[in-house]
Amino acid sequence: MKFKSLILVAFLTLVGSACNKSYLDINTNPNTLPTASPSFVFTNALNTTTANVINANETGSYWSGQWTQGNGYIISTTIFAYNFTNGDFNYWDGYYDNLQDYQFVINNADAYSQKYLKGPAKVMKAMLFHQMVDMYGNVPYSDALKGGAVLAPKFDDQKAIYESLITLLDEAIVDLKANPFASAFTGSDIVFKGNTTKWAQFANSLKMRLLMRQSRISGRDSYIKTEINKIVTEGSGFIAGEEVGVGGPSFYLATAGKLNPIYERWGYSANGAKQALNNYPRLTKFLFDGLKASGDTLRLKRIAYANGGESTGTAGVSTQKEIVANYNGTPFGASSGYLPANTSSLGPSLLVKGDFSRPFILMTAAEVQFLLAEAKQRYSDVTLPNTAQAYFEAGITQSFRVLGASTAGATAFKGSKVNNYDWEASTDKLAAIATQKWIALTNFSGLEAWTEYRRTNLPAIPQSMQVPDSKRPVRFFYPNTEAGSNAANVSAQGTIDAFGTRLFWDVD
């Protein structure tokens, strides 16, 4: 793994934010770098996390069957024909660099009297490591993040890492409860602005995700139920009614490089010009067919713009009339015949011209409710207070809310007799939960959508038009950068088949 100098990065951050020369006079020896404050490193780490997650989410949005590629570009055979090697999809280096930032905060918070940062940093460390496992399987964990002390870290078993992350999140909650933010430093927290209760709720929500990921593994029920009951007993609860988001209006600016990264990649420049990749991601025909067949048109119109995209004259409104007939998806992997004028692009739930400062979402309240619904449906004797039906219906409501659709539309599905929407009418409750979670993750959490598809095989998304057989990726290869710098430990993982070497929670 690459080892970077965190002190240098933090110093550059300080320089970029300085307002006068005296502010820089912190180092009496010009030959020695200044010491970095954990608060500066933490803020920069959160911002860096968005840059890492957006890349993994994009690939996940494709491979979960939610997005495909617009036909105004040469088709990517790497993504849509699955022609990739260990030189592709290297999210590894960026994630480990980012993890090193959070470890620096954990290691140095006490010395700088910034103990309130330890809990949030541990939560973020747990989130990134669980995503690493979900992408690569066994990864360096116990030996990782030690800089020059361990240059060739051993790989840990992925199941053991998951259990260690539950413990890490427990530690984070203890730290959060014991160390409220100093009021002068709440600005360094660009997620919850120093609200440690919400950080604890995020930690519990991540724990539920880690636990439900393992719910189809034989012999894990007792462990999972015990851990769920511990969460309830702890008492902080879960994220509800809002998203876990980085940045927002007080952080993102109308300046190149300082916009919300989603807006800057697929939306518009700081001066309002459409980006070159504005028409690259397209919503899939499979997604649209399901929404239309179920009468789920309110969410459809928030997930996507009508054919032709956003109006140049009225922000947040489609160029064409917003009727169902004008919303057309693109078959997954199609390379011709589906140009911007006759297909739908990423909608106002994600992109609106001029709205450059939305928070970058890491986790939605809807996902949390569906996790709780699955937990209660699988394990009726856990101490979660509500019924599986109540959590399921709350998940749909939260999905409507985050998309910007009227939540009355969610209520209308109660008693509608629509399978996978109306709880009572749904013949397979777990399939209904998985299907609704997949819809709710659209545009927000592509990596999670792909991971859940690998776990549940739901919904039954079609194969890419670029692939003549049934093969699908079940993981990434270890990147060639790690194979070059940590060859013995990579080799110890055996021969990796990206289409056959399943992760521990992917039982079929």
TrEMBL record:
Protein name: Starch-binding associating with outer membrane
Transmembrane segments: none
Superkingdom per UniProt: Bacteria
Record's keyword annotation contains Signal: yes
Leader peptide range in chain numbering: 1-20
Gene3D superfamilies assigned to the protein according to its UniProt record, in alphabetical order: 1.25.40.390
Pfam family, one: SusD-like_2
Keywords associated with the record: Signal
